[in-house]
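User: Predict the structure for this protein chain, please.
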Amino acid sequence: MTRRISTLVLLAAGMAGAWLNAQTPQGTPSAGGTANQGLPAPAAPQKTNPQPAAQTKTKTQPAPLQEPRHIPLAGDPFFAPVAISLGPQTMKQRFDDYAVVTFGPRALVGPAFSSLILMAHPPKDYPHYWRDGGGAFGRNYGAFLARASSLQAGRFFTGAALHEDFRYRPSASHNFVIRTAHAIGFTFVDKSALGENRLALANFAGAAAAGFVGELYLPAPYNSLHYAGIHTAEIFATLAGQNVLREFAPDIDSLTRKLHLPFPRIPIPGWWVPRKN
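Assistant: Here is the predicted structure, written as structure tokens:
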């Protein structure tokens, strides 16, 4: 009798345990602290279900990394063919900038002022037909125009061939000395099309082209290799000075506006405005 009662108690306990296991959610440990080992544990699907969503996010997130690097660039404060431009230049944009700088107002106005200054203080060995009169002005004007055009052509073709981006990038510092050193240093080391530092071969090529082109038309002795080297150094120093002016042009403009002082702000046509890629 006792054995029958014990057997019935064990059967009842077993049925109760089975009923409790059936009521427990799949994959959840039972009241005894053990998992339902008889059925495939669905914990793995619960852990892996969020993974496709995460993978989908990771697939869509790299899209911004494929976009061009957006780096603010400063152009010439007086003529500003590319005052602010973002991203690397395409060949068409590079050619447009070259055409504006070479054949725009800068190319026509700048050599005229340079010619007048030179004729006001001509070199002692200049012949008379390079010193006085309208013909002398035309010769000097053509000489400076050829020098400026050679500079821009040398920079354009070298930069296009070597994927060099010689547009000026201002310093992130607020220190005067650091900004000045950055501007001068950018004449020697500029950027590649991908924004990496590289030797400014376009500046070297452009300065050399502008310096040596005078051998074709300048009067003796200024058409020699000696003066060609001097002119090349002068052009390179001019590029460094332009970079310094570009670096501090926003500060100069802000100061002159605050003090109501004159500062060259030449109006430019609609097609010659800062652009964003």
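Residues 70 and 86 are 5 Å apart (CA to CA).
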